[in-house]
């Protein structure tokens, strides 16, 4: 069999791996969008020009719902794929929400292109290729098939797949594929994104059984999380400084699916467990509201602490002074709310979304705090804020003085750190592991992690290049 790395090769996003079996059966593991702004990869994936024949792919296995793992599935169908997408039930529902959100953004892009080409008749097939809309998403999600965790599912003759809890996001999975070739089974594992232990809401990542080949993410391959404390205590100290000691606003850029739910749950626990008056919290993301309902629906798949908290309080996410904002008018009003408040808004990188408006209105305010709680690419506003001591900042072609306090915490990062990655790898017997492929990480992180694994006796650790194939 042959394994080809079409995405997340020496970079963090765009996971896409094609496994071709000896009988020409083809399995695509993840089908994600590249989010780093790379022009080359934008041409290949964003516009649907896959570097393989999509019509020859038989089935897709999806590790989790994040767009850098699922975002090109509608384009895969438009390019000729006719098979099914296998994933867990929460992944199926969260993927539908995220893909519809991407389609809404694409619709706005299409409208802007239409305005700029009013007199041209040839523009549409070129500039909007691959910008799928809601109809294409609806067509794609009809073919999603939910698979329970731990169910060894037969997807073809002598072919099985099993999904194991990965933490990281509700429904996220490690995937193990077993295929019989030449009279013996080969086992290939795909880590997906590895979660961290003792994370709010989510279960710990599960160790997968022994495999012959392992494809493993390496996002935190060169560092550990800097904040090791209790998330409630870490957040409490920031709220005390930003909103209690002064009448200030705390702006929290946050991804709508996953990160926002962890924040709301932690705030709920904080208000329950500490003697602190609930400060008004604005959640400014319609996507966050509907995805929170999915988390509530699948609360039995959350960790024991969250399940016990629900039994005690009858609520995981709802608390006094929590307000979901729906309209743009409500959003703009929250930006200038005169009392102390917390505004949680997407996107987490401050790269589009309503949060840009909140940052614009508060970046020059010395009584405001902008709290970064996750990863941000260098080209995003969030990345620039985190890059160092800025005197001014450009947002949407406007320049602003940076007077607000800029803070960062990583207790809400859904990725396992270096210690977690080492622990995951060490569950595999190094004498039985024929090859270990590192993906989904910056090259420096991959190189560092590779060196660590080699010192621990793991041989044949590979850092695949884009489009590189390996015979297994």
How many whole angstroms does the radius of gyration measure?
22 Å
Q: The CATH topology of the largest domain is what?
A: Metallo-beta-lactamase, Chain A
Question: What is the number of strand segments?
Answer: 22
Overall body shape: globular
Strand content: 15-25%
- Residue stretches low in confidence (pLDDT < 50, at least 5 long) are 37-47
**Which structural class do you get from the secondary structure elements?**
alpha/beta
Domain Metallo-beta-lactamase: 13-249
InterPro entries: Beta_Casp, MBL, Metallo-B-lactamas, RibonucZ/Hydroxyglut_hydro, RMMBL
GO molecular function: hydrolase activity; RNA endonuclease activity
Domain Beta-Casp: 260-385
Question: Your description of this structure?
Answer:
With 472 residues, the chain is an alpha/beta fold. It folds into 2 domains: 2-223 and 414-471, Ribonuclease Z/Hydroxyacylglutathione hydrolase-like (Metallo-beta-lactamase, Chain A); 231-408, Rossmann fold, CATH 3.40.50. It has helices at residues 39-46, 67-70, 73-78, 89-116, 124-127, 134-141, 231-244, 259-273, 286-297, 304-313, 328-335, 355-362, 381-386, 418-426, 443-455, and strands at residues 2-7, 16-20, 26-29, 59-61, 84-87, 144-146, 153-156, 159-165, 173-181, 184-190, 213-217, 249-253, 280-284, 322-324, 341-345, 368-372, 392-395, 398-401, 405-408, 435-439, 461-462, 468-471. It has a 7-stranded mixed sheet with strand order 6-5-4-3-2-1-22. A 7-stranded mixed sheet has the order 7-8-9-10-11-20-21, covered by helices on one side. The protein has a 6-stranded parallel sheet with strand order 14-13-15-12-16-19. A hairpin with a 2-residue loop joins strand 9 and strand 10 (184-190). Helix 4 (89-116) packs antiparallel against helix 6, helix 7 packs across helix 8 (259-273) and helix 11 (328-335) runs parallel beside helix 12 (355-362). 47% of the residues are buried.
């Amino acid at each position: 069999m042959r394994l080809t790395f079409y995405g997340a090769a020496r970079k963090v996003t765009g996971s896409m791996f094609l496994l071709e079996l000896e009988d020409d059966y083809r399995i695509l593991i993840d089908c994600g969008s590249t989010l780093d702004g790379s022009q080359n990869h934008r041409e290949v994936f964003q516009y649907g020009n896959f570097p393989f024949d999509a019509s020859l792919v038989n089935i897709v296995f999806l590790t989790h719902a994040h767009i850098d793992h699922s975002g090109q599935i509608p384009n895969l169908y438009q390019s000729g794929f006719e098979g099914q997408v296998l994933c867990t039930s929460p992944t199926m529902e969260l993927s539908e929400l995220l893909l519809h959100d991407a389609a809404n953004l694409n619709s706005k892009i299409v409208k802007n292109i239409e305005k700029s080409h009013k007199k041209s008749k040839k523009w549409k097939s070129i500039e909007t290729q691959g910008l799928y809309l809601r109809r294409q998403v609806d067509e794609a999600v009809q073919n999603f098939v939910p698979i329970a965790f731990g169910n060894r599912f037969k997807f073809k003759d002598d072919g099985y797949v099993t999904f194991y809890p990965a933490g990281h996001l509700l429904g996220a999975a490690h995937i193990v594929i077993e295929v019989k070739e030449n009279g013996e089974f080969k086992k290939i594992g795909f880590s997906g994104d590895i979660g961290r232990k003792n994370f709010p809401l989510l279960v710990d990542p599960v160790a997968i059984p022994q495999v012959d080949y392992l494809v493993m993410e390496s996002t935190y391959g060169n560092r550990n999380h800097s904040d090791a404390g209790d998330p409630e205590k870490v957040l409490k100290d920031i709220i005390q400084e930003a909103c209690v000691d002064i009448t200030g606003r705390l702006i929290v850029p946050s991804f709508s699916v996953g990160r926002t739910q962890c924040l709301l749950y932690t705030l709920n626990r904080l208000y329950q467990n500490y003697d602190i008056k609930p400060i008004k919290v604005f959640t400014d993301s319609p996507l966050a509201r509907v995805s929170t309902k999915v988390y509530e629906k699948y609360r039995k798949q959350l960790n024991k602490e969250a399940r016990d908290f629900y039994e005690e309080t009858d609520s995981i996410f709802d608390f006094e002074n929590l307000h979901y904002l729906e309209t743009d008018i409500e959003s703009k009003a929250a930006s200038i709310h005169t009392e102390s408040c917390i505004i949680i808004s997407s996107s987490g990188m401050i790269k589009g979304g309503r949060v840009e408006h909140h940052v614009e209105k508060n970046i020059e305010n010395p009584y405001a705090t902008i709290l970064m709680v996750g990863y941000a690419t260098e080209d995003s506003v969030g990345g620039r804020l985190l890059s160092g001591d800025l005197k001014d900042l450009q947002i949407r072609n406007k320049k602003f003085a940076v007077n607000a306090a800029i803070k960062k915490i990583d207790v809400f990062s859904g990725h396992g750190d270096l210690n977690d990655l080492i622990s995951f790898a060490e569950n595999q017997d190094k004498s039985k592991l024929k090859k270990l492929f590192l993906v989904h990480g910056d090259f420096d992180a991959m190189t560092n992690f590779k060196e660590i694994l080699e010192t621990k006796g793991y041989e044949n650790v590979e850092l695949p290049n884009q489009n590189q194939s390996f015979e297994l």
